[in-house]
């Protein structure tokens, strides 16, 4: 049984002339235990895909089955419960609550679950030890480095013991040493039998993955299985620009992305891309 099954999933934003087709009939199956890197230029739909997989957003068209359950049929509270119990999120901007210390941030999901305060603190502290920043548990988020903040965010994502980790550019704001640390933590989570999906602009980080999915203009244009410890062959070719003309054409967007390493705030992100809707009903 696949953990994730997307069938002809499209996502439209806006309406009328300002409609953006962020995902265009995406088909993607991810098995339990995969470690998937998602790559592609700014605005190609990576975050939209992560948000749909992570039940933060719904497809406009198409089917999504998570653990063989059709997500479309879930009521909002059922969807929220499934998300809380199954998925851990990691964002580029950490998303910690600034007025809570690190320990309380990590313990927060347990509060929503109704765990008593003693157990919350105990579990959160153990999780901070696991990610290597227990000595910072009473620090406020603004007293931590980017790498430490991301470790705290990972601890919070793991506190409910989720089967699936969805990480949208987890190393996007980090230097190379902190990026390595964060990726080692994700690799650890993967080794424990969990499924990890992460977005990256950095071809080097495909070393951690077992599979790399390349996106362009809302579609998956290439999907390759990879060997842990090696940079994915397509990512490497794109970085070295040693593509054949066919590959060059196919991966033109990915190639552009790797030259620029854009961030979330990059200008192209805010531009609305308009595409013909292939006769589909707008929603
Ligand atoms: N809430 C929204 N309303 C309207 N358009 C949106 C919204 N969110 C995303 N978009 C548009 O959908 C497209 C895909 O955006 P998305 O954020 O998924 O791209 P991305 O691949 O994650 O980019 P980046 O690498 O910059 O993070 C873009 O054209 C974007 O402008
Ligand atoms: Mg994004």
Brief descriptors of the model:
alpha/beta; 22% strand; binds adenosine-5'-triphosphate; 10 strands; 10 helices; Rossmann fold; disordered C terminus; binds magnesium ion; globular; six-stranded mixed beta sheet; 283 residues
Describe the structure.
The chain is of the alpha/beta class and about 280 residues long. The protein has a single domain (about 5-95, about 165-270), classed as P-loop containing nucleotide triphosphate hydrolases (Rossmann fold, 3-Layer(aba) Sandwich), CATH 3.40.50. Helices cover about 35% and strands about 20% of the residues. It contains ten helices and ten strands. The strands form two sheets. The protein has a six-stranded mixed sheet, with helices on both faces. It is globular, with a radius of gyration of 19 Å. Bound molecules: adenosine-5'-triphosphate and magnesium ion. Magnesium ion binds next to helix 1.
Radius of gyration of CA atoms, rounded to a whole number? 19 Å
CATH topology: Rossmann fold
Strand content: 15-25%
- Write the CATH homologous superfamily: P-loop containing nucleotide triphosphate hydrolases
Measured as a percent range, the helix fraction is 25-40%
Strand order, largest beta sheet: 6-7-8-3-9-10
Termini, distance in Å? 31 Å
Q: What is the arithmetic mean of pLDDT?
A: 87
The helix-strand sequence is EEEHEEHEHHHEHEEEHHHH
The DSSP helix count reads 10
Give the overall form. globular
Briefly note the structural class of the backbone: alpha/beta
Bound molecules: adenosine-5'-triphosphate, magnesium ion
Largest sheet: 6 strands, mixed
CATH class: Alpha Beta
